Fold:
Amino acid sequence: MFSSLLFLTYITVSQAENPSHDSCKKPSISWDALSMDKLVMNIDSYELCAKTCKNTNKQHYENNCNYFTWNDGNHQYFRNSCALFKSPGDEQECQNCMSGAASCFCASPFACQDTGDNVAFVHTDTESWSKCEEHCNINFGCSSFTWFTEDHPYRHLCILYKECSHSEVDTTCSGCCSGVRSKKSPCSQSQYKELSSAHRSVHAEGGKNRDRSYIRDVGGLKSADWRAMVWYRFTGEAGTKMAEQFPGWDNCGTTWPGYLAVDNDSNKYNDYKLSLPTQEEGEKEMTVCFAR
Structure:
């Protein structure tokens, strides 16, 4: 008797307002000149060279810039220049130069740290920071996350954290990009309504209650705690969760009660047999069966 979805909690850490990218700097290192895609002149700082590399990607240049080398004002052959690379070759030592990876220049270039009980989940093979953010948004226990870039030994790992305070971050990590969940959890109190009526309990007798905003030819009354299609949480006399097996006809304050089609021995007559969402899955569509 209910169009359902399920849920849980969270906390946040703010992103750095003026992030330091010192950990991204690779002094006296560059790559084989044969792998260079472009050399831009009149670039008078490392930061401007990094920005030039990232802007090249926004302009849909034929060869995206993934790495760069800034040659300073004392360089012997091309002063104040910025070498752009899509796929760098072998690493080489250089003088009056400093290199970096475009992926390291994110809004929060640091890593949250494991304090013993704050890791919610770890995803492998996560191809981008935005995908890691997506993992955090659907994991109700996640407040913050750290994604490791292509150049880090833990590349493409995405670690979800229950909490991450400023005292628990590693600002020396090169190739670490962190963030916070950008979507409110349905389990935060302002995001859901409560279903608390005693007639919703599996122990309640039948009745004429319906979870719908209008009643056509079926008769009955709209349940007092029903507020249309929003997130709900079972509380109070209704219990703590929706029924996961058929409660029997004329129960739960209605004639034809609904129950979640989960995979258990009591639901041998339904064909769905879905498992409840794990912490990794987070938000998940489920099927509700109605006995008629």
In short: The first helix runs from residue 46 to 58.
